[in-house]
What does this fold into?
Amino acid sequence: MLKGKTVLLGITGSIAAYKIAYLASALHKLHADVHVLMTENATNFINPITFETLTGNKCLVDTFDRNFQFQVEHVSIAKKADVVMIAPASANVIGKIANGLADDMLTTTVMACRCQKLFAPAMNTAMYENPIVQDNIRKLKHYGYEVITPASGYLACGDTGAGKMPEPETLLEYILREVAFEKDLSGKKVLVTAGPTQEAIDPVRCLTNHSSGKMGYAIAKMAMLRGAEVTLVSGPTAIEPPLFVKVLPVTSARDMFEAVTGVSDQQDIIIKAAAVADYRPKQVSEDKVKKNDDQASIELERTDDILKYLGQHKKDGQFLCGFSMETKNMIGNSRAKLEKKNLDMVAANNLKVEGAGFQGDTNVLTLITQDEEVSLPLMSKEDAALKILDKIISLTK
Ligand SMILES: Cc1cc2nc3c(=O)[nH]c(=O)nc-3n(C[C@H](O)[C@H](O)[C@H](O)COP(=O)(O)O)c2cc1C
It folds into this structure.
């Protein structure tokens, strides 16, 4: 995902420094060229050898160390960088960079970088809330540097409050958003629906289906990483929503219809990956439910057909993609759906094929448009999401 990208990690004198070993390793596994810069004080918390082993690159600490690969190391490395993240960022380094001081390898290199700079402050709550530190953070933001709001929680000093560095998994997402993929959906608004809906029978029971939400969440994440402004309307799922995506949680088909139609007019691309329950119990009085409890027979009615509604109200230039899950006659049924609901594409999967459909981490899709049918092999849902987006981009150019 990060082949050909150079990521600089700047580490300062904070107890959270050890967490960056995971981040350096994760970036290296994604094929980024990772260079770690440490302040002298940071080397008291974690040894540079750890990073040299994890990244395969020399860890840079001393500006005047002559045992370097390049002539003027801080300038060469700054020129190569696609993104730089200072994490953990001490109050001291934040203050130095905000005020133009460059007295060590880390601060000098950051000063020489033209790429985006991300800061993850980590410090004791009183330090973080100190008005001078807050002024310095404001100054960094003023100059276009992104400062990641620290989490609140139990801190290494024993206090509880703001100042905790976000977990390295979260920091990785910030880096990916910056440098993963070409931003070929930049300026586009994308709406994705995901997960099942739940139709209440009574306060305890519901009608639902086996959708995990994984396919829709993967599409939302990949569209965001490719630069789109993404809204994810999600039924109840057990998965973490992707960062940097606006999530509208819903429960029933009616909720989903309202959430989707509330924003659908503003969207360039709509991808309906949710498995909306087709039926809901007809509303009956609570009294009747109680009376019938021992021999409950539930009368059903159809839920709203959200995709059909979107097809009927499609804006000029809007691209509408639906999913179809079939057990037989996949192409014929999906083509009929494409026509009947005025869709631009159907991503079809045959539930009888190994590795396709709900729950799992893989899918086997056929992308059906007016003019063609493209059968994709078995792949991860994230790769399938990228293929769906590739196709949409090629058709909307
Ligand atoms: C155990 C320990 C933990 C520390 N944790 C932090 C911290 O999380 N954030 C911070 O700003 N300073 C922290 N400090 C203080 C910094 O290490 C100190 O301000 C140092 O001068 C920072 O140097 P640097 O910014 O060049 O890395 C800590 C100090 C010690 C001894």
